[in-house]
Amino acid sequence: MTDASVFIDYLIRIKGLEERNIAAARVLNLVPGTHVKIFEPFILEIELYGVLMTPPRPKGRGLYLCDKIMIYNAQKAGLKAYHLVEDINKIIDLLKS
Fold first, then answer.
1. Taking Cα atoms as reference points, which of 42, 44, 40, 8 lies closest to residue 24?
2. Distance (Å, rounded) from C-alpha 18 to C-alpha 54?
């Protein structure tokens, strides 16, 4: 699952945070060659609740987020969660596997 913030980072390059735009582009550009489906993201407060209530599938995948608090909360809930920039290589490996 990819958080809506990743889509925002893909679309908007912020000075000083360019690595987020680059990482988002690397991940989302892999999608067309994979079995991953993209659904229009909803940018709502309830999104986090919905993500935490729905375990990621298939096994071995995880949540790809830019918000460290959301990552912490997801991991506390027993979900695999990865930071888009800090874990970019792991995310790419997961998408390619």
1. 8
2. 30
Domain ranges of the chain: 4-96
Helix (H, G, I), strand (E, B) or coil at 58: coil
* Tens-place pLDDT, residues 76-97: 878 888 998 999 999 888 888 7
Q: Residues 6 or more apart from 23 whose CB is under 8 A from it?
A: 9, 84, 85, 88
Tokens encoding 25: 């582009």
What crossing angle do the helices spanning 46-53 and 68-76 adopt, rounded to 10°?
40
Question: How much is the pTM?
Answer: 0.49
pLDDT tens digits, one per residue of 20-50: 999 989 988 887 777 766 655 554 444 545 5
